[in-house]
Structures are given as C-alpha cells and as structure tokens.
Amino acid sequence: MKELLSGNEAIARGAYEAGLHVATAYPGTPSTEILENISKYKEIYCEWSTNEKVALEVAGGASFAGARVLTAMKHVGLNVAADPLFSLSYIGATGGFVIVSADDPGMHSSQNEQDNRQYGRSAKIPVLEPSDSQEAKDFVGIALDISEKYDTPVLLRITTRLAHSKSRVKLKDRVEVPLKEYVKDFKKRVILPANARVRHVDVEKRLRDLKEFSEHFEFNRIEEGTGDFALIASGVSYQYAKESFPDAPILKISMSYPLPENMIREFTSKYKKIYVVEENDPFIENQIKAMGIDNIHGKDTIPQIGELNQYIVKKSILNEENDEHFSVDTNIPPRPPALCPGCPHTSIFHTLHKYKYIVTGDIGCYTLGALPPLNAMDTCVDMGASITNGFGMEIALSKQNDERKVVSVIGDSTFFHSGITGLIDMIYNNAKGTVIILDNRITAMTGHQDNPGTGKTLMGDDAPIIDIEALVKSMGIKHVYKIDNYNLKETEEVIKREVERDELSVIIATRPCALLKSNPKIATYEVAPDKCIGCKLCIGLGCPAISFVDNKSIIEPTLCFGCSVCAQVCPTNAITIKGE
Amino acid sequence: MAVKSILLCGVGGQGILLASDIISDVLMVNNFDVKKSEVHGMSQRGGAVVSTVRFGDKVYSPITGIGDVDYILAFERLEALRNLDKLKKDGIILVNDYRINPLPVATAVMEYPDNILETIKKTVPNVVTINAFDMAKGLGNIKVMNTIMIGRLAKTIDLPKEIWLQVIKRRVPAKAIDINIKAFEKAYNL
Predict the structure, then answer these.
(1) Which CATH number does the domain housing residue B92 bear?
(2) pLDDT computed for residue B5 by the predictor
(3) Which segments constitute the 4Fe-4S ferredoxin-type domain (chain A) (predicted)?
C-alpha cells in the first residue's frame, strides 16, 4: 500500500516499522511533526524533553540500556545538544541510535542556515541524507542497523523541504526488535580521559570501517546518462538535479559522511566536468576536492546561500536566464506573520514600547513583538538568551552610568528550556533587572505542544505542573508578581514599578494562548464611529482584527477575540462590547 | 504524462493545507506520481501561505518556480497578485474574489491595491473568478470556502468527479461531510 507522507511523517513511520522503543525531542520547525507522529504509535515511548540536550541524553541513556532510540531536533537544537553529541560519539550505541537534524536552508523559520552535516564530520559519526519520503522512512531502519553494527550514533540529516514535502511511501508492518540486556561497561560509558583515549582509537577505526560501508551502500549509486557534464547530488538537491537534467549521469550520494571515495574517484575520472549539487555548505564538494580531484565544480557555480530548486540548479549550470513570466506594475503590500487577535503578548509589548525600555527577547511567537507596529524588542539571539543578554547589558550600561532599563522577555516553554540557568546566574551575581515570563501555558509557535507547565505529556498522560511562581520564589527572588495580561492598567503598573525597583524581579504574565481550544472567545468588540477620533492608538496594538479605514478604526467581528485591550487604550471609550 | 503543477495560495487559516491534501489524494487515486510541498511554522500566524502540488508519470522536485505553474488556486485577491509570476503563459488562475487585509494595510501604512481582478484579467488570458465567500455564506458556513475552491478546480481539471467526492468524504470531519459535498457540487456546477 502506498500513502502520501511528509518526510517527517515518513520518519515517524520508519521508526515504527524498525521496532523503535524510545523517541525524544524538543519541538522546533521543521522537525516538530516527527515526534507528533511517533506519538500515534503506542509501541514507542516518546516525550517532549525540556530541551535538545536533555532529549539527546535521555535517548543516550535508553540506548545504553538496550533500546532502539531516535531523537529529533531542528538544526540549532543540535547546538544545544552538541556537548553530549561529541561524548556519545566516543561512547557509541548499544541499542540503535538515530539523531535527526532538520536543517532549514532558506531560513523559513530559523535564525541561521547552518549545515549540520558538519556536525557529523566533526563528531565523527555517519551522516545519511534522504531525498524523498520513501528514503526518509527507509533510512531510519538503515540508520538503526548501521548504528548497532558499527557502535555509533547516526545523524539523519533532513531539510525543511524534505520534512514538509509529501511524496509516495510504501508502508510495511512493524518488526519487533528485542531490547538488549544492560551490561555495565566502565571503559566504554565512563568517558574519563583514560577511557576516552582508548575510545578515540576505536572511533577512528570505526570511521575507516564506515568508509568501506559507504563504498557498497546501495543508496550511494551511479545512474548512467549522457551529456557534456555529470552531477553529484545528495538529499532533496538530488531531485532538483534530476528534474533539471534527467539524462545527465549522476552520482546520488545518500551517505555524505564518510563518502565512498573509490566510487567517487571512478565516477569523476569518466567525465570532464562534474557539478556537485548540494544545499548550504560545500560539504561533499570540499571532501572530494580534498581527495585531490580537480574537475569538480560546486559553489563556484551553484549558490551557497538560500534554498535551491530545479530552476536555480539549471540556470546556474547552463548560465542562462529563462524567466519568462507574467508581471504587474503594482505595489504589493507584504503579508508578514502577526500576533493573533487576543494574543496575550500584545499588551506586554504595548507597555514595553510605551515606556521605551530596552527589551531583550527570545525565541517564540513573541519574537513577533519586535516587528511593527509594536517594535518592542532590541535583541533576539537564541533560546534563553533574553535573560542572560539582558543581564550582560545591565552590567555594561551601569558601567557607563546609563540609566536606561533592560527588560528580559521569555516564554514559558523557553524558560523551561534554557531560561532557568540564566535566571540563577542573575540571582547568584546580584543582578537587578526585570524578567517577564510570558506564561501562555503552551509551546505555541511550533503549533501547540505540551511542556512541563501544561500538565500533559506527549503520550497523553497526566503530568505534574511545574509551578513557575513557586520555582522562582524558591530560588530566592523576593519580588515575584503575577499579572493578567488583559488588565492593561495592572500590567502597566506592575511592569513600571518592577523596572524602577533596584532589585531583581520576575513578572509572570498568566493569560493563556488565545488559540487554545480550552480558551474560548470572550466577546466581540465594536468601534462607535461617532466617538472614534482616528488617533490610531488601537491600531498601534497590531491586532489583525482592527483596521483603519476612512480615518476610523473598525473591528472585524469574526476575528475579534474579546481581550478588551483595544478598549482599554481608547482615549474616548469608543470601543465597547457589541450590542452593549 | 508530463509533469503539471498546481499552486494554492492565500492566508493562514483559510484551509489551504487541507485543500492541497485533498487535491493530492485525488491525484494519487488517479495513479499519478504526486509530490506536495508546503511550509509550516511562522507563516501560520496570519502570514501568506503557499502550497504546491506537482503530478505526472514521474515527479522529481516537490517545488515549482517562476512561470512554471499550470493552475493557480488563489484564496485571496492580493495573494493571487503576489503569485501571478509563477503562472505559465498558458496556465489558468482561479481567484477567490475575497479580501483579507495584511497588517501593513490594516495599520494604514500601505494601501490594498485597487482593482486587482481587473489587473489580473488584463495581464493573464485564462482567469476564472469566483465568490467563494458568498457561496459559503449561502450554505451556512464560511469554512467551506476551501471546498468551493476545490470544486471550481475540479471543474477545470479533467478527472472523474466521483473520486473528488470520495476523497472529500474521507478527509473532512464526519459531521461536515454533507455541507462540504454541497459546497463542492455548487462550485462544480457553476
């Protein structure tokens, strides 16, 4: 039977079919749906971990104790998990161990275009790159087998286009694989220098063995063809190469580390000119050049920046323009993403903008508070950095007697992920800043995943709810206050008071995400046109339900959530509940 | 058959991903090789949404590009205009005569272009307009706008009607089957 599956759905299916026992992840686009789909298979224990390092370590522990494991994360998640990654490479795998890295060429939902194949090479573990959903499914089982045979974690590297494209997949039944009995192995799993020195020798040998495997790996294959040049391609770029030049000879690379050197030497010796088609870094290209092969072209022809497609590949190689298309002479307004109607973050950013505080932001829906019209964010770096960047700015500003105030803004899930350690740093080092935790009771940006604050696990079980207020108080912070985001007066008063205070404070904004099913629409507001003076204060909230037409604000009733924040900013009380 | 492509565009929340799933399923049942592409994440927060479906005997790339789309199914006027450059010279664009203000327009920073439908008709030979909002409202649920768009596409693409109905029945929630079938029929019989 064939089904149309996304790459992420296919990886989940592959995990199921290959007898996987344990799966862990922290949500992150474009990887999130892997664990969401694995959670449909009751045979597999799965969890949303608090962060990617935790996810990788839980998976590592389960592999020690004989389970087949998979952990999935977006590319930047592997930065968080890099510490255990390098140690686990030396330690190896007992139960099969797959790490899925979902890279994001084109930065559809990310802060950079890092190419995580480099991690595979750097950590000395094999890298597999599927090119469609069928391979995505099959490569999970293959990766688990490689992992067990060669005693190594395996990196399954996908990209956004693979993760979120659907193609036909042939399904199979699950094959149960018994867990291996746990046997203590001090020399292997206690990575003391004395043990690690021995393991490093094993790791280098493992790489040589894997190189031999790569030579005979059936998914590294040569497809004969004709023409003036040949192609080498991996991942979804293989599809772009085939689409552009269906008749050209092509070497399809499915294991991009270690590469099948002999196969490459043989292939490249047959053609005068060869193009390596790969997204992001010249990962395969540089390895081939390091073999001393010089008839190779890659990033000198095909862009390194952004996502590829068949048109870019064809245009780059043939050096020709073919962009005949319709065009109109109209100024088309962009349609950027925006905070939703009723979003509890809106009143917070309205307040922070109003008082012109320096705002260090973080990763989540609330990063949208940086955009017009709220414009209420100075920095956004990585998960948890709002707190630590804020503290660093506080130190530097005070050194030059700059009186400006810094406020750190972080979501609940991000706080659990990487905010807690930063906050402890602030407490320990006598910081004076203000941290606002936007506790909207869900991991919202990635599509509503549960987290340690929601009371549910990924498997649907009840879970203890981590009480953020009790947690931060227990660390010794004296000034901890909860606010209702929809009460603008209270929100402004508390934020202003705590920012002025010469001590560390934490404000917990408690309104849940307006998109939660458990959080129904409150009311429908309307603008009385005779009272509206066109001051645009409500427009400044950036609520998608409010438009400015003919010098008056109007509210789209089907979009209005009834949060009332617009009514509270209106100086003439022109906004009221409909019909009242 | 040579590869053909369909591009669906509109605004997050308009049911575009479900519509492209239904179209892909119909093509699968008709024994085409099918690849579908979409982008999740940040764009779902009220941003512009695009999903593409490519089908034929053998499909390699899941994505489409400039001047290479056979059918555009635009759920909103401005998004039709934004994606017009993707259409092939002999391609067909189906436009829902419906407006959703993007944030720069709502906040009066930019203007929503006037006469979008006229502009498109002046530029492209094969334009079909449809008022899916009024039709959906007439049926009693504006959520079936996407099924109306599918029905209008089905009328344009030559595939057995039974398969469209069969897939819609399988894909939509049980309690919404009747109204979705009505919505499909209404557009198919325009």
Answers:
(1) 3.40.920.10
(2) 97
(3) 523-550, 551-580
pLDDT tens, A384-411? 999 999 999 999 999 999 999 999 999 9
Listed residues A474, A509, A544: the one ending a domain: A509
Q: Are the CB atoms for A238 and A245 separated by under 8 Å?
A: no
- The pLDDT tens digits for A275-333 are 999 999 999 999 999 999 999 999 999 999 999 999 999 999 998 876 789 999 999 99
B119 in a structural domain = yes
Q: Is A334 among the domain residues?
A: no
Cβ atoms of residues A279 and A308 within 8 Å: yes
ipTM of predicted complex: 0.94
pTM value is 0.97
Q: Does B54 touch chain A (CB under 8 A)?
A: no
List A397's β-bridge partners, or say none. none
Sign of CA dihedral A540, A541, A544, A549: negative
Decide if B56 touches A, using CB distance below 8 A.
no
Query: How far from B97 is each of A414, B75, B135, B184, CA to CA, in Å?
Result: 41, 8, 11, 17
pLDDT tens figures, B1-44 = 899 999 999 998 899 999 999 999 999 999 999 999 987 655 55
Closest C-alpha among A421, A464, A370 to residue A80: A421
- Using a CB-CB distance cutoff of 8 angstroms, which residues of chain A are in contact with residue B40? 29-30, 32-33, 109, 164, 447
B175 and A CB contact within 8 Å: no
User: Containing domain of residue A297, as a range?
Assistant: 221-318
List the domain range (segments joined by +) for residue B106: 4-133
